[in-house]
Design a protein that fits this description.
Length: 255
């Protein structure tokens, strides 16, 4: 069974920094063997309906502003795993719209360039359908699970916690807020105990959820990881750090 991974991607600056966070991504990437293709599900592509990238070469989409020019110069020249699209359509069992102009957003390429710096593995990106409930996102992920038997890495990219309004920009190593720690610990427990209902119920805990996720986008990829989880999977957390007091940078690996 091919491993599957959730990464907390944080600031786009992680793409060009060299630190414990990026070194752990390098290490995770080296641990993967015989990966033939990568399917990415990122917080930064939300759509009305399900979309999939459909171009031969996936452009590096610099979907941010206000960052140094060095970041905008980064390119990740990934080829597309187009041969996978018919299989994904069959597994999902619902219409998928093809997007031939969009490239990989920073939730995808900023992680891939540390995991697979040679950019030698074909990639596809699947969107997050904003019409779906948390249960429907989970169910869609379950439909994708047969891909794990075919040397395909499914990579989810979001954040365990994601509140920018409380960021302490003056101190990257600021002590995390109690509410962020509480949410991070609940996510750990959900995966360690294989408790999808705990994950669903976090979304329904309006006060705790909203302070950690003012919008749903960075939480939704966690539902896909839970949907891909099997009883045989070993759950590990190959990186954990805090940034700016609110961002849990925890990764979750199933293998």
């Amino acid at each position: 069974m091919t491993p599957t991974l959730f990464v907390s991607h944080g600031s786009p600056m992680n793409a060009i920094e060299q630190n414990a966070y990026t070194r752990d991504l390098n290490s995770i990437g080296r641990s993967f063997k015989n990966i033939e293709a990568i399917l990415v599900i990122s917080a930064h592509w939300e759509t009305n309906g399900v979309y999939i990238t459909d171009s031969e070469i996936l452009p590096t989409y610099h979907d941010f502003r206000g960052f140094p020019k060095e970041l905008f110069a980064v390119e990740y020249p990934a080829k597309a795993a187009l041969s996978l699209i018919p299989e994904i359509e069959k597994l999902i069992g619902e219409p998928i719209k093809k997007e031939s102009k969009r490239g990989l957003d920073h939730g995808a390429w900023s992680m891939l360039l540390h995991l697979f710096p040679e950019a030698n593995i074909p990639v596809l990106q699947l969107s997050l359908d904003t019409n779906k409930t948390v249960e429907q996102h989970f169910e869609l992920a379950q439909k994708l699970s047969p891909l794990r038997k075919k040397n395909i890495l499914i990579l989810m990219s979001g954040n365990i916690t994601h509140n920018f309004s409380h960021l302490n920009f003056e101190n990257e190593n600021a002590k995390p807020f109690d509410w962020a720690v509480q949410f991070d610990e609940a996510i750990q427990k959900a995966f360690l105990t294989d408790d999808k209902n705990l994950l669903f119920n976090l979304k329904n805990n309006k006060e705790l959820f909203k302070i950690n996720h003012p919008t749903d986008d960075h939480f939704l990829p966690l539902l896909y990881l839970m949907g891909l989880k099997t009883k045989e999977d070993n759950v590990t957390f190959p990186h954990m750090s805090w940034q700016y007091g609110t961002l849990s940078m925890r990764h979750i690996l199933l293998n």
